[in-house]
Structures are given as C-alpha cells and as structure tokens.
Design brief:
Length: 199
C-alpha cells in the first residue's frame, strides 16, 4: 500500500494536502528569486507554471509516487511553503526530502519546525530508516538547517545541475533514524536547560 498524505501539526504550523486554491501562493513561492536561487529550476515567470506544478504534484501524490505537504501557519490557511518526500523506496526504507519556504517567513524557525514534523512522520509512521537531501553547497542556510536536524554531509557530486546556464554541484546529506533520535534528544535537553533553539 502506498503512503498517503496525512495532516501534520506542530506548535505553530499545519501541514496539509495541496489544493487547487494554492496555485497563486505556489506561484508567489516559486517566482521569488531568493527562494529559487539554489533550486533545480529557474524562478517561475508565469502562473501557468504553478498550475502545471499543482497538477503534477496532485497526480503524483494520488498515485503514491511521492508525498507533498503544503506548509501553513495554524489559524491561517495560506500556503507559505512546501515539503516533499520523494524517491520513496519501501524495500530499502529510504526516501529523499525537499523543501521551500517563502522568503518573508525566513528567520522564524518555520522550516525547522516543518521538517521536524515530516521527519517525525517519516521515521515514526512510515518506518523509514534513511532520508537523503541534495543541497547546493552555496546554500549555507539550508545546510545549517539540515545539520541542526542531525543530517550528515556525506559527499559532493560535482557539476550535477545546469540551471539557466549556471552549473552547480550537489552536497549530499544523509539522516539515519538513529541519528535523528539522537539529535532530537540533544535538542530537547538543550531546551530543558534553557538553551536557545536555532532560528
């Protein structure tokens, strides 16, 4: 049986199924040059691209090819980002993760909170053993986020992407279920001792 998108909730966020009414917000997200700076495609220039993304995502989720959560702030239903689990391999209990957050929401800890909700689901409910992430090495913020969650930098794939004439590398990160449990315990201990959480 293929995994399905179930609503996930955290202290401040609600992660839900993508809807047709999200197309305008998807366009705002994917047309922002800051959000798309290190993405694998150029920034969108036409809302039709966001409509096509919605249709592709909706079809893929319904077919069980991958899982996509629209990130919203609890009490407000507007999409501010998205998180995807894809290349899900049940035999090897492995998947890849991708994410994006609107630039006007950066610096509030939302991305970490959303990813933690998805990782809790992936390792808990889906019983995955390993999750991988592909990050542009220049994307320091995303690399720090992954490392805070327990991901380990495992290697570099040189000149892997060509986007709008620019060639870039891939930094490959991996997270094992045990790594995540250890990082979560350390984070909880730090908060209990009065330490600041990363933003």
């Amino acid at each position: 049986m293929s995994p399905t998108v179930v609503e996930l909730n955290s202290a401040r966020l609600r992660l839900r199924m993508l809807r047709a009414s999200d197309v305008d917000a998807l366009f705002a997200l994917h047309s922002d040059p800051r959000v798309m700076r290190y993405w694998s495609t150029p920034a969108y220039t036409d809302v039709a691209q966001a409509q096509a993304l919605f249709e592709k995502t909706d079809r893929g989720v319904r077919c069980g090819e991958f899982l996509y959560w629209a990130i919203t702030v609890r009490g407000r239903d507007q999409l501010i980002g998205g998180c995807t689990l894809f290349s899900i391999n049940a035999t090897h209990a492995r998947a890849e993760i991708g994410y994006a957050l609107a630039s006007d929401c950066w610096g509030r800890g939302y991305a970490q909170e959303a990813l933690r909700a998805v990782l809790d689901h992936a390792f808990g409910v889906l019983r995955l053993h390993r999750i991988e992430a592909d990050v542009d090495p220049r994307n320091a913020g995303s690399r720090r986020l992954l490392e805070r969650l327990g991901f380990k930098h495992e290697g570099l794939l040189r000149e892997r992407w060509r986007v709008a004439g620019e060639i870039s590398d891939s930094a490959i990160y991996g997270l094992l279920a045990d790594d995540y449990a250890t990082a979560a315990k350390a984070s909880a201990s730090s908060r209990g001792a009065g330490g600041e959480t990363a933003r």
